[in-house]
Amino acid sequence: MQTYQAETTISQDGKLSIKGLPFRSGEKVVVIVRGKKQARKSGARYPLRGKPIQYANPFESVAENDWDSLK
Known about the structure:
Distance between the termini: 79 Å
Structural class: little secondary structure
Strand content: under 5%
Shape: rod-shaped
């Protein structure tokens, strides 16, 4: 069995067309269609990765008003 891979895009009317196949006219073939995953843009998932960090008041208390024992 000979395997041939081609990459194409579905047209707006939903039709698929593959030209230049290495098979003779009348030859029987099996067609399997798989969707291709879209590649993600690097960095889109973690937009702050690699950015510098700056602390405005690094030694101040955090959420001091939320502690019941300090009231």
